[in-house]
Amino acid sequence: MGERMCPVCRKTLLSRYSGDPVCAPCARSSRGALPAVPVWLWDSPEIREALASADLPAFLLRVRSAMGLSQLELASLVGWSQSTVNRVENGERNTLYDIRELLRFADAIDMPRQVLVPLITGKSVTEYPAEGINADMDMDRRHFTGVLAGSLAAGMGWRSPIIPDRVDAAHIKQLKATIQRLYADDQRMGGGLLLSPALRQLTRVRRMLDEADFTESIGRGLLSAAGELCICAGWLAYDSGDQSHARQLFGEALLYAEHSGDERLRVNVASYLAMHAVRQARTRPGRAREALHAVAAGKDAARPWATPRVYGLLAIREATAHAVVGDEIACRKSIATAWREIERGTHEDDPDWTGFVTPTVLTYFEGLTAMTLGKPRLAVARYEHLLADASLGERNRTYYRSCLAGALLASGRRADALAEGVALLPDIGGSRRTLQELTGLREAADESSEFAYRYDRLLAA
Q1: Which of 265, 177, 260 is nearest to 228 (CA)?
Q2: Which of 161, 360, 412, 413 is such that its CA lies 20 to 30 A from the CA of 304?
Q3: Given a cut of 90, is residue 362 above it in pLDDT?
Q4: Global pTM?
């Protein structure tokens, strides 16, 4: 088959592997290479099924269970009593069969109204329309679905966040559950698809701090939660390739750590600031010194309480910064320190955010620092050893494979690198960070190659 020119831009040769009539950039608006952005973080087949069957007691119970809230905590969020929650869940009260109460409930837990569509259609839909629901009516269980089906009108979707007059422990618990859910979903779909809902939650928290009333202790907890959410959103921005936004969010998290007096949060922020500075040092070498300063600040904040896992994490960040400036001896010393700390095992006081600091992850950083120091063959060996671990999550495995592809290319094994690249591209999802690791491989690939075609599709999406 002969080569074809894109009929739109008349500049790009179409790959023989492409069935598209135009090139990847020209097809940007029509491609759906990535999964859809989640409508609501707590959405699930079970919640949709409960709505589709108009079983609102089950709907309420599943929402509360997903958020990890007690009846009393959910009651606090939505302005009910605990007994009301209990009776609604047991089917003894039809509170949610009043549309006004249902929409008030949705707004209170920051649920977009299109999540209620299964209640209208009787089907567990996978895509939501943009139409809305009219709240100006009363109804009972028997007539609810029929009347609701005829009440579509403008206004469904994300509304401006509803901010409570007074924040209590239940709101902080919901925020922490939201952060955990964001991290869990990140492992499935990548930061690019989750940044928007994370930023919406951050807007909510900022408004709580500015507009709501709370006690001093709740205020400190809210500041800490805001800092944790900034770190989470910063990571999602980092993973999606938005480094400027990531830097801003990590900086905001540091302010919340200082205002709350939360030393654990301060150390966590320092770790992420160091990570980000090291990445920026690829094009701005001076940022490596910034990373070392962040690590030093983290060590100072950690000294009164830190566990071996915490020191191991800071040693990893320190090693990557030393590698960027070419200090191999200091890098090896920091890697050795990290191994020594990690081999001391877990501790009951380990913060949740050190859970990823394992021998497997340290093996990855050995490969990363070897590449940075110009030793791609050593990096290949470390990455191959890492990928032999059957317990790796799929998203982490995909990222590590992209690192392996880069190391194979740098060590002169171009064909092996391209084969690895082609094989992993379908699994990238919303992680621009993983795609960026393959930039060098794209530059080395022939324009008409399968890898170039598939890479350009993802880049244009």
Answers
A1: 265
A2: 360
A3: yes
A4: 0.84
What gap in Å lies between CA 334 and CA 310, rounded to an integer? Answer: 13
Q: Is residue 9 part of a domain?
A: no
- How many domains is the chain built from? 1
Q: What are phi and psi of 13, to 5 degrees?
A: -75, 130
Residue 452 counted as domain residue: no
Task: Spell out the residues 6+ positions from residue 59 whose beta carbon is closer than 8 angstroms to its own.
Answer: 47, 50, 51, 96
DSSP annotation string for 423-439 = HHGGG-TT-HHHHHHTH
Q: Are residues 139 and 97 in contact, defined by beta-carbon separation less than 8 angstroms?
A: yes
Average pLDDT, the chain: 87
* 109: containing domain: 45-153
Long-range CB pairs of 366-369 (<8 Å, 24+ gap) are: 366/335, 367/403, 367/407, 368/320, 368/323, 368/403, 369/319, 369/320, 369/322, 369/323, 369/331, 369/335
Q: Is residue 333 situated within a structural domain? A: no
User: What's the CATH code of the domain at 56?
Assistant: 1.10.260.40
CA–CA gap between residue 6 and residue 13 (Å, rounded): 6
Q: Give the tokens for residue 398.
A: 């995909």
**Is 144 within the bounds of a domain?**
yes
Encode pLDDT of 131-149 as tens digits. 444 444 444 544 555 545 4
Dump pLDDT digits (tens) for 31-65.
333 345 567 889 888 899 999 999 999 999 999 99
* Dist CA 420 CA 281 (whole Å): 27
CA 154/CA 47 separation, integer angstroms: 24
